[in-house]
Structures are given as structure tokens and as C-alpha cells.
Amino acid sequence: MNDQTTAEATDREERLKTAYTETELRCPNCRATWSPVVANFVNFGTDPKGREGMLRKAMHHA
Questions:
Q1: Phi and psi dihedrals of 29, rounded to 5?
Q2: How far apart are CA 58 and CA 56, in angstroms?
Q3: By CB atoms within 10 Å of each CB, which of 8, 27, 30, 38 scores lowest?
Q4: How is the chain split into domains, by residue range?
Q5: pLDDT at 22
Q6: What tens-digit pLDDT sequence spans the chain (62 residues)?
Q7: What are the backbone angles phi and psi of residue 46, rounded to the nearest 5°?
């Protein structure tokens, strides 16, 4: 591998990592307010908590 190929592979890995941000949410039913960490991009192949987050979201809406 040359330096350019290694740099491209590293750049691709960085772009495919799960990216998080924090936002304020409010439940319209119970009016609870909280500031969870929210994923902007989830890589289910490398992030073991990605599927858990989707399940929690579905449970709150149910």
C-alpha cells in the first residue's frame, strides 16, 4: 500500500464512524424534556449500540 491508499482508507473509516450530536427533545404527550445524545449517522456494522437506539426510539413512540 502506498501513502495515498492508506490515507484514503483512513479517511473512509473516519467518514463511516457513527457520528453523534446532542439535541433537546420534548414528548408532546407527557411534556417531558430531555437532552439525549443523538446519532447523525449510524454504522450498524461497527456500532453495537446502533440497533439498541432504534429499539428505544420505537418503544418511546409505542
A1: -80, -55
A2: 5
A3: 30
A4: 3-61
A5: 82
A6: 566 677 777 777 777 777 778 888 888 898 888 887 776 777 767 676 766 766 676 666 65
A7: -115, -10
pLDDT at 1: 52
Say how far apart CA 33 and CA 26 lie, in whole Å: 4
Amino acid at 46: T
Question: What is the per-residue DSSP string for 1-62?
Answer: --HHHHHHHHHHHHHTS-EEEE--EE-TTT--EE--EEEEE--TTT-TTHHHHHHHHHHHH-
Q: Which residues contact 34 (CB under 8 A, 6 or more apart)?
A: 24, 25
